[in-house]
Amino acid sequence: EIVLTQSPATLSLSPGERATLSCRASQSVSSYLAWYQQKPGQAPRLLIYDASNRATGIPARFSGSGSGTDFTLTISSLEPEDFAVYYCQQRSNWPPRWTFGQGTKVEIK
Amino acid sequence: QMQLVQSGPEVKKPGTSVKVSCKASGFTFTSSAMQWVRQARGQRLEWIGWIVVGSGNTNYAQKFQERVTITRDMSTSTAYMELSSLRSEDTAVYYCAAEGNYDNAFDIWGQGTMVTVSS
After folding, report:
1. Shortest CB distance from B109 goes to which of A30, A44, A49?
2. How crowded is the C-beta side of A70, counted as CA atoms within 13 Å?
3. Model confidence at B108, in pLDDT bands (50, 70, 90)?
4. CA distance B110 to B7
5. What pLDDT, in 10s, does the model give residues A4-43?
6. What is the DSSP secondary structure assignment for residue B59, as one 8-state letter?
7. Spatial CB neighbours of B3, under 8 Å, sequence gap ≥ 6
8. How confident is the model over B42-75, as pLDDT tens digits?
9. From the CA of B75, how many Å to the nearest CA of chain A?
10. How confident is the model at residue A105 (pLDDT cuts 50, 70, 90)?
């Protein structure tokens, strides 16, 4: 099965700073790469789909990029509500199975 | 609005089974796919499996292949996840999530169902 490795595990930043989160796959797979945000006690929320497309209602400060095995989520200027855990998820072509990365926690410095 | 409503919390004995339901509304259930994900307290999201609602085709994570069954009832727009041979390590919040506005991305999530396995 594909393994997704997210780095760093924790990112300590201040509001207004730029956050860059990485997601690396163990093998080149499909373009079906999504990013989710999760806050304590809540279900995950879709931010980015197909590696680079923002979901409806997601602010423009969130952007996704990458292809093949290396993907990035960038938050251009952190707002107080952005401090959360972020997960990437990718689908293999065959068999069609999904995998999550282990998550990156963005915390207030 | 598009939503998924899951069944309530469960407490189960080791070795038994649990079946969690997830009722969809506000979107075309039959054109969707639905995944099941779990999260133990303080841990990462863990993918369990998914079903393409229209065809009924399923795929499961290798870890759960022998113990999980995902089904759907199109007449009631409800999906189900049954996990058997429960052990304490299965204690977690179980989420369903559906493709609403997008293919191959899950933008509609249920509220989660707490499953506790304890003797």
Report:
1. A44
2. 1
3. very high
4. 10
5. 999 999 999 999 999 999 999 998 877 789 999 999 999 9
6. E
7. B24, B25, B26, B108
8. 999 999 999 999 999 999 999 999 999 999 999 9
9. 26
10. very high
Environment class of B8 (CB within 10 Å of its CB; exposed 0-12, middle 13-18, buried 19+): exposed
Instruction: Let me know the angle formed at the C-alpha of B104 by A26 and A64, rounded to the nearest 5 degrees.
Output: 65
What mean pLDDT is predicted for residues B7-13?
98
CA distance B33 to chain A (A): 12
User: What residues contact A98, with CB distance under 8 A and at least 6 apart?
Assistant: A89, A90, A91, A92, B35, B47, B50
Q: Which two tokens stand for residue B90?
A: 């299965």
What is the number of alpha carbons within 13 Å of residue B113 lying toward its C-beta? Answer: 27
Q: Which helix (H) or strand (E) holds A20?
A: strand A19-25
Fill in the DSSP letter of residue A51: T
- Would the CB atoms of B44 and A91 count as touching at under 8 Å? no
CA B56 to CA A82: how far, in whole Å? 37
| DSSP 8-class letter at A55 | P
Cβ-Cβ contacts under 8 Å, A23 against chain B = none
3-state secondary structure of A23: strand
